[in-house]
Amino acid sequence: MDKRELRERVFQSLKKNPQTHVHTIENEIRQHAEGFERHDTLTLQEVVWELLVQGVLAPGKNSLNLNLPFVHLTEYGARCVDDGTILVHDPDGYVARLIETCGGRRDDVVVESAREGLLAFLAGHHAAALVMLARAAETLIDLLFETVARQGRHSDLEAQALEPCGAAPRARYDALHRALDPSTLTQQLAEELEPRLSGLQALIDLSRAETGRPRVPTSTRDDVLARFLMLPEQCRFVHDLIDHLERPSAD
Description:
By secondary structure, the chain is mostly helical. The protein has helices spanning 3-16, 22-32, 40-54, 75-83, 91-101, 108-122, 126-151, 157-161, 169-179, 187-207, 221-246, and strands spanning 19-21, 57-59, 70-73. The chain has 2 domains: 3-74, Arc Repressor Mutant, subunit A (Orthogonal Bundle), CATH 1.10.10; 90-250.
């Protein structure tokens, strides 16, 4: 079994039995997965240790069994399972969902920034994760800049679109915001315009000062998790908006 499939089955087992034993997880997977083989036991151990490092699991089952190989879902892990957000603990699954949400449209910088950011998040490096998320946000803003510049929707925008992505991010955002007229968009795009763009800019603001100089962001694990969960829809919005602007009827 590949690691992604095994991880999903571990999540399913934990959802049914939040206080359990590693061998119990293994036995349940053996009973329900035809492809599970002896060497998959090592991969299962990797998955369990990753979830322990990420804070999804902790050692122990109850007051009489406080140590490994007994494990239990932490409060954070239980919330992830209940909210259906456990997907972020599967980097390959998250990236696949990101691309699927965008209808197959992808930008390699956005995808790889999200992947690297998620790996940093899973290792507990929340500042590094935010920096990579901000890089993805800057790339999305740049893609939109370039499209608007090509369409000639703002006389001063073309030069701004060619500036390095780190230069005066707030000024770039304000110029783009002025250039996009909600009345020329579909109802859905018009309704999403402000919250989606402001969400992307908020990410950039966390990692850059007004001048564009980098800074080390600070945030909680839950806040970073929420931003990862919002990114697929933000990507989808930018690609939908670009498609709309590039249609002849949008000129």
